């Protein structure tokens, strides 16, 4: 009985990071409860790309190969101009050889379903808000208030997203997320009849990506400079047609296939100012709650998955929780801070709007591409080749 009390965790948020944390902690002997505000885990969102670093992290919870089986990118791909000219060419084989595995594009709902199905049926409680009542400390448990009463926990994992209420309680002096100046659109549609190579296209102040999914659909995303909180009066599909309607195939075909109700628009916020720590007391922040970044590296969800398995690694059986959380912060804060900054730099480069700067950028990218895919992929060294920690973390006694 005492062993169960020493290994009770509450995860706030049933997104990708929270569910991965629940699986990883259960594998380390924790009794885990996941609290989700939404009424269900019904399919939401659009696509997500999982790089080899996240797939290796998912190996630690037994799901890596199941996700790898969903890889759809098999041939060439790269970056283009709006007129269709290739700026950078690479291939799935070159990426897999360099980083030790494929890049997998899948629907977020598919990944959430795989994670949730791997947990016992009663692990996730939906339909009620969770409020941190006490972060706990070395001599007392944390407490989380729910509509059904308070839960005590030796560990609370705050995976409650970019506007995390837990983060605001732990670090009230932190400025929180800031608007990047860019907004995004995402949709999933049936694949067009004419084939195409996976690509991301950079234009003046705008970018577009078209990526095939294993089930025959296409995940498309776009990004452009815009005032915060703005929505197109004529609808988001009409706005995408205005911005991208004259771009190369398959952009026009994808826009023709999408319905207004399938287009998601979200402003891009980021934690420009790093937190002083990813933990306080017995609470650990994870994913966007800890280090929200621009989507330009495609690493937001990947880093949440990394967070989850690193946290579980340090919080193994018999570990002192406050010390384990200090080790978690030491592992994760430097890496994710660097990625937040790198994603912001790429965002500024991708969405240059002045035509002389755009021409210079495109010329430089084309020149780099002539040296082959290895040089192109070098920008992901240290990111996609990350590997999860192995073995037991050293015991730390407070």
Can you describe this structure?
The protein is α/β, with parallel strands linked by helices and 398 residues long. Helix content is 35%, strand content 24%. It has 14 helices and 18 strands. It has helices at residues 2-6, 16-27, 52-59, 64-68, 92-99, 108-117, 165-170, 236-244, 251-257, 288-291, 300-314, 321-350, 355-369, 373-377; strands at 8-12, 31-36, 47-50, 76-80, 86-91, 104-107, 124-126, 131-134, 142-146, 149-153, 155-158, 178-190, 199-203, 206-212, 217-225, 264-270, 279-280, 283-285. The strands form 4 sheets. It has a 7-stranded mixed beta sheet with strand order 5-4-13-14-15-12-16, with helices on both faces. α2 (16-27) runs parallel beside α6, α2 packs parallel to α11 (300-314) and α11 runs antiparallel to α12. Residues 394-398 have low confidence and may be disordered.
Number of strands: 18
Please mark out the parts with pLDDT under 50 across 5 or more consecutive residues, or reply none.
394-398
Overall spatial form: globular
Separation of the first and last Cα atoms: 23 Å
| Range of helix content | 25-40%
Enumerate the strands of the largest sheet in spatial order, edge to edge or round the barrel: 5-4-13-14-15-12-16
- In round numbers, the mean pLDDT is 92
Task: Spell out the blueprint of helices and strands.
Elements: H1 2-6, E1 8-12, H2 16-27, E2 31-36, E3 47-50, H3 52-59, H4 64-68, E4 76-80, E5 86-91, H5 92-99, E6 104-107, H6 108-117, E7 124-126, E8 131-134, E9 142-146, E10 149-153, E11 155-158, H7 165-170, E12 178-190, E13 199-203, E14 206-212, E15 217-225, H8 236-244, H9 251-257, E16 264-270, E17 279-280, E18 283-285, H10 288-291, H11 300-314, H12 321-350, H13 355-369, H14 373-377
Parallel strand pairs: 1-2, 1-11, 2-7, 4-13, 11-18
Antiparallel strand pairs: 3-6, 4-5, 8-9, 9-10, 12-15, 12-16, 13-14, 14-15, 17-18
Helix pairs in contact: 2-6, 2-11, 3-11, 11-12
